[in-house]
Amino acid sequence: MVNSSAANAKTQPTTEQLEYAAIIAWGNRLGILLLLLGFGGMFSGVLPGVLSLEQLQQLWSLPLDEFLQRAQTPRGWGWLSHGEHGDALAMAGILLLGCVTLAGYTLLLVRFVQRREGVRALMALAEIVVTLVAALGWTL
Predict the structure, then answer these.
(1) How confident is the model over 54-112, as pLDDT tens digits?
(2) How many CB atoms are closer than 10 A to CB 92?
(3) Could you give the CA distance from residue 84 to residue 109 in angstroms, rounded to a whole number?
(4) Both ends of the chain: CA-CA distance in Å?
(5) Most buried among 60, 88, 97, 139, by the most CB within 10 A?
(6) Where are the alpha helices (DSSP H) in 45-117?
(7) DSSP assigned state of 47
(8) How many helices (DSSP H) and strands (DSSP E) are in the chain?
(9) Using the 8-state DSSP alphabet, how is residue 85 labeled?
(10) Residue 117 falls in which region: left (phi positive, over 0), alpha (psi -120 to 50) or beta
């Protein structure tokens, strides 16, 4: 017969798992809130969009290169200079959602280095590097 307290101890989350989950949960909540505020503000008219809804509707079906040319919207990180626009606020939410996992792995890296768990630290570092390489669009 299996000792039930030993079985329960194996199923309890570790401190790192709880911290990682908290970062993911809070980051996701904040990212979704920014999305809702940005799109809600834009569609309600409280926050203007970089493009008006009418312009967006006319250009939406174009190929990306033509859309960017005709819309004359900021490219790359240029959207950060449009923080007063609803769609830029929504982009900030998307950015945050994309960075949440990176923040979690960074926390894990720090914890593993503090405890001198080299293999786990290298695994966390590898996750961070792969995520950054993918986010920056680099190819190996």
Answers:
(1) 888 888 899 988 888 888 877 777 777 777 888 888 888 998 998 999 999 999 999 99
(2) 19
(3) 35
(4) 52
(5) 88
(6) 53-59, 64-71, 86-114
(7) S
(8) 6, 0
(9) S
(10) beta
Q: Which two tokens stand for residue 77?
A: 């990180």
d(CA 33, CA 52): 22
Give the phi and the psi of residue 46 in degrees, each rounded to 5.
-70, -40
The two three-digit tokens of residue 110, written as one number:
């720090």
Cβ count near 29 (within 10 Å): 12
**In angstroms, rounded to a whole number, what is the distance separating the alpha carbons of residues 140 and 123?**
18
Total residue length of the chain: 140
CA separation for the pair 16, 5 (Å, rounded): 21
Whole-number Å distance between alpha carbons of 111 and 102? 14
Contact 12, 48 (CB under 8 A): no
Look up residue 41 and give its amino acid: G
